[in-house]
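To whoever is on call:

I kicked off a structure prediction for a single chain this morning and the downstream step that reads the tokens threw a length-mismatch warning. I double-checked the sequence; it's 91 residues and nothing unusual in it as far as I can see. Pasting both halves so you can look.
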Amino acid sequence: MFEFLSGAVMLGSFVAAAFFWRYWCKTSDRFFLLFFAAWVLLGLERLGLAILNAPEEPRAGMYLVRLAAFILIVIAIVDKNRAASRARVKR
């Protein structure tokens, strides 16, 4: 059952990554590229958990991958807010 749920979460992560990739191709905005990378990392983390088959004892490396994904999301949000504030100052 754990493998099935990990597969479903992994699929959802890769679908979200595909949407962000599509938006990045249309706009070339770094925000979408960083979110794409974060969702790919989250999908790969789930793939790793399913391959290791360890729901009771998650590996420390998997937490580092998840941490890297969330750091990318924070960087994307901060970068987008900085760009918006710089645009307001230029007016």
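Update from on-call: the warning came from a stale cache, not from the record. Cleared it. Sanity check on the structure: The mean pLDDT is 87.
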